[in-house]
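Structure first, sequence second, as always.
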């Protein structure tokens, strides 16, 4: 008994076939060094609220020895991925402790998450538009490798995993090839701990075998550890230890051959079923205490010449080492120790983290460089989308300038002129010789009407004209009585002494369709102006002072703007900011969601990239795009369509860029808050109209009820719009409060949005 017994683990030679493989001397000595790669104690984790929690991990204990393969098995939804994400520092336990490679995940200097861990998530989690080489370069840089190291490793992985040409785009690879690339990414930096979440799902048997072969290979020297989940229970025979998980606990944590022998089963699936039934009967995870009696049988039946040398500290230990009160430990003399010592009370072996010294070399700058290159490459690869991103603001400006602010033209006016004769129902045009003695003043008035705005349509009687308006054929009906001229002359001559009939007959009667306020007001304005011009003409012809026709208010040269203000000039500043703000929202609102849904964000977190670094890289990338968009918007608005800009163009540009930045940050908030892309789109679109309506872009906020006006002031676009309007239309400098309030408000919003995004991202990261 004193002679050394070689431990045995099932070999990798055939997938699903239990072939025993003696451990190397080196490996077994490593196991005996009591090194733990991962140690989990009393782990509790739930999702959902405290009132309605979904308990996923309940008092779970796990020990993974260094230099071993640990197969994590269990039914779908039992909590495997959750456990792994806690191990890699993606999520935090509610209670309990986790030690990984001698440190606590997420703590400074632990290297986890970070380069000490290689993680292959369940999803493919690759950038489809990247080639295999670009994918490897990106992840290599993230892990602080230099390009020549990456190239060397890439060549090895291409050969080893039988990958196609390194220049093939990931999206054009088959599902199996993509999985292999994803596996290669996890192996890229040769991590100490490899965590593989179902790497063999949907993979053909040959490839599965080669994956397992490699895992066995890399753990051989005892320095690398692998935790792997799989639904193909039988393939896990090749692991050194198996953790059978159910309802958030381990039913057993044991070497596969021991499990098979102990339960007298020929397949691990049967063991799992047996244990699950047992757990069901017991109503918990406590295993059968009598099971230890089978252990001697198990060990006796094991192998032809070997017995199982299991040590508590190796991680390849007795039945349910951490779950039961029974501990199977074989002493140096080969005696099995059944002492009822609960392993759950055993603390994790805390070692110093020797390899963390070089963790600090792995700088934020390197990661940000990789993230920036990745973001720009993604943009470049989607060049069609990029062109659209730049064409969109130009299109919006062109459409705005062409469609908004112009005076309506060709407005039909139904005219009934009882003074003008009809011959055979055909209108007899008015004579054009208008002298002072001209008898037909209604014709003269009509002649003065601005024909580009108003199109005159003549009707024989008032009734048919009004019906035309009712049918929508004209915007108004204008009626002159049959003795309009005489009555008007008498009215002018008699003045205040005019009788009722004279006043009535000299009136130009207009019945307008006022359903469209803009058109109604324009018609009123034009008809009144026409009357002013008409009376001026007459007075001039009759050698009278034509100024008598003027309304005695004189509008001098305006202090700001012109006497004929354009609606375009009023709306343009708000429209510039709205376009830049919401384009930036559109650019960023789904940026993180897409990465999150594709599992890429998870991969980045585990690689040790922080939320701040991710946000910063996105801000930088989108900022470049946004500057281009801002330039195009301002060039088209100011240079091409000659929208008035009285102020300092440099300050105008700065404010516009800041608003774009503000929109980007708002987009990041949406992206961080929303789980699904469609929710992000809904939120972005849903915020567009309220912001547009309440920010004084299309209507002065002075027209709003007081409360709404107050609310409006605190929106990101309101003060900025007022500021830009003041600069563009009044030419005010930055020193005016109206101007600098816009800057202050924008900067405050940027900081607020960035803070919210960071907090939400950190919370979601766990
Ligand atoms: N982010 C989350 N929010 C709420 N519940 C979650 C979340 N992630 C997982 N769950 C729930 O936790 C439980 C365990 O999920 P987990 O993904 O860990 O299981 P799993 O064993 O990995 O499953 P599978 O083998 O199918 O991948 C499931 O009921 C799942 O619905």
């Amino acid at each position: 008994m004193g002679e050394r017994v070689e431990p045995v683990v099932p070999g990798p030679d055939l997938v699903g076939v239990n072939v025993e493989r003696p451990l190397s001397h080196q490996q077994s000595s490593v196991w005996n060094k009591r090194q733990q790669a991962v140690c989990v104690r009393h782990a509790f984790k739930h999702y959902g609220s405290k009132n309605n929690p979904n308990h996923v991990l309940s008092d779970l204990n796990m020990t993974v020895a260094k230099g071993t393969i640990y197969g994590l098995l269990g039914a779908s939804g039992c909590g495997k991925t959750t456990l792994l994400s806690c191990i890699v520092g993606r999520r935090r336990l509610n209670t309990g402790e986790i030690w990984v490679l001698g440190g606590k995940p997420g703590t400074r200097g632990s290297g986890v998450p970070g380069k000490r861990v290689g993680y292959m998530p369940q999803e493919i989690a690759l950038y489809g538009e990247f080639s295999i080489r670009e994918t490897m370069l990106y992840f290599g840089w993230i892990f602080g490798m230099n390009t020549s190291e990456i190239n060397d490793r890439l060549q090895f992985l291409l050969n080893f995993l039988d990958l196609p040409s390194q220049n093939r785009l990931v999206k054009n690879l088959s599902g199996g090839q993509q999985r292999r690339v994803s596996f290669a990414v996890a192996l890229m930096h040769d991590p100490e701990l490899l965590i593989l979440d179902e790497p063999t799902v949907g993979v053909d048997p040959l490839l599965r075998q080669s994956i397992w072969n490699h895992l066995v290979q890399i753990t051989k020297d005892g320095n690398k550890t692998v935790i792997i989940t799989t639904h193909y229970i039988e393939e896990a025979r090749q692991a050194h230890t198996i953790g059978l998980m159910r309802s958030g606990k381990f039913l057993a944590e044991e070497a596969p051959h021991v499990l098979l022998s102990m339960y007298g089963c020929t397949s691990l699936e049967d063991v799992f079923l047996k244990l699950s039934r047992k757990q069901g009967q017991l109503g918990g995870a406590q295993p059968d205490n009598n099971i230890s009696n089978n252990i001697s049988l198990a060990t006796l039946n094991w192998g032809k010449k070997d017995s199982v040398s299991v040590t508590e500290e190796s991680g390849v230990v007795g039945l349910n080492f951490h779950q039961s009160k029974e501990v199977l430990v074989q002493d140096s003399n080969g005696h099995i120790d059944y002492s009822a010592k609960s392993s759950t009370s055993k603390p994790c072996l805390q070692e110093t983290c020797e390899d963390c010294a070089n963790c600090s070399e792995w700088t934020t700058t390197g990661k940000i460089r990789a993230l920036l290159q990745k973001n720009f490459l993604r943009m470049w690869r989607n060049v069609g989308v990029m062109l659209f991103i730049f064409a969109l603001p130009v299109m919006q400006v062109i459409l705005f300038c062409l469609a908004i602010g112009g005076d309506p033209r060709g407005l039909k006016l139904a005219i009934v002129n009882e003074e003008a004769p009809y011959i055979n129902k055909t209108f007899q045009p008015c004579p054009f010789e208008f002298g002072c003695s001209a008898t037909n003043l209604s014709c003269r008035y009509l002649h003065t009407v601005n024909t580009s705005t108003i199109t005159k349509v003549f009707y024989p009687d008032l009734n048919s004209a009004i019906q035309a308006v009712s049918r929508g054929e004209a915007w108004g009906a204008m009626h002159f009585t049959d003795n309009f001229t005489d009555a008007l002359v008498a009215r002018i001559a008699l003045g205040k002494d005019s009788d009722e009939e004279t006043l009535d007959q000299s009136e130009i009667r207009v019945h307008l369709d006022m359903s469209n306020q803009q058109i109604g007001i324009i018609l009123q304005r034009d008809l009144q102006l026409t009357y002013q011009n008409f009376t001026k003409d007459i007075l001039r012809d009759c050698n009278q002072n034509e100024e008598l026709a003027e309304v005695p208010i004189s509008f001098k040269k305006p202090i700001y703007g012109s006497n004929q203000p354009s609606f375009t000039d009023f709306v343009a500043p708000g429209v510039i900011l709205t376009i830049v703000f919401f384009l930036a929202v559109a650019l960023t609102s789904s940026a993180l969601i897409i990465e999150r849904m594709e599992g890429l964000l998870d991969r980045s977190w585990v690689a040790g990239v922080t939320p701040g670094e991710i946000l910063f890289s996105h801000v930088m990338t989108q900022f470049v795009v946004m500057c281009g968009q801002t330039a195009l918007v301002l060039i088209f608005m100011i240079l091409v369509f000659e929208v008035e800009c009285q102020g300092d163009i440099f300050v105008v540009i700065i404010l516009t860029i800041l608003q774009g930045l503000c929109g980007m940050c708002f987009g990041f908030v949406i992206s961080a808050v929303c789980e699904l892309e469609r929710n992000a789109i809904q939120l972005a679109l849903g915020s567009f109209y309220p912001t547009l309506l309440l920010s004084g872009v299309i209507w002065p906020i002075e027209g709003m009820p007081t409360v709404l006006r107050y609310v409006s002031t605190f929106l990101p676009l309101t003060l900025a719009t007022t500021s830009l309007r003041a600069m563009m239309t009044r030419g005010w400098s930055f020193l005016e409060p109206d101007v600098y309030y816009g800057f202050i408000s924008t900067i405050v919003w940027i900081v607020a949005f960035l803070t919210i995004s960071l907090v939400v991202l950190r919370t979601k990261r766990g």
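Margin note: The domain at 411-549 is CATH 3.40.190 (D-Maltodextrin-Binding Protein; domain 2).
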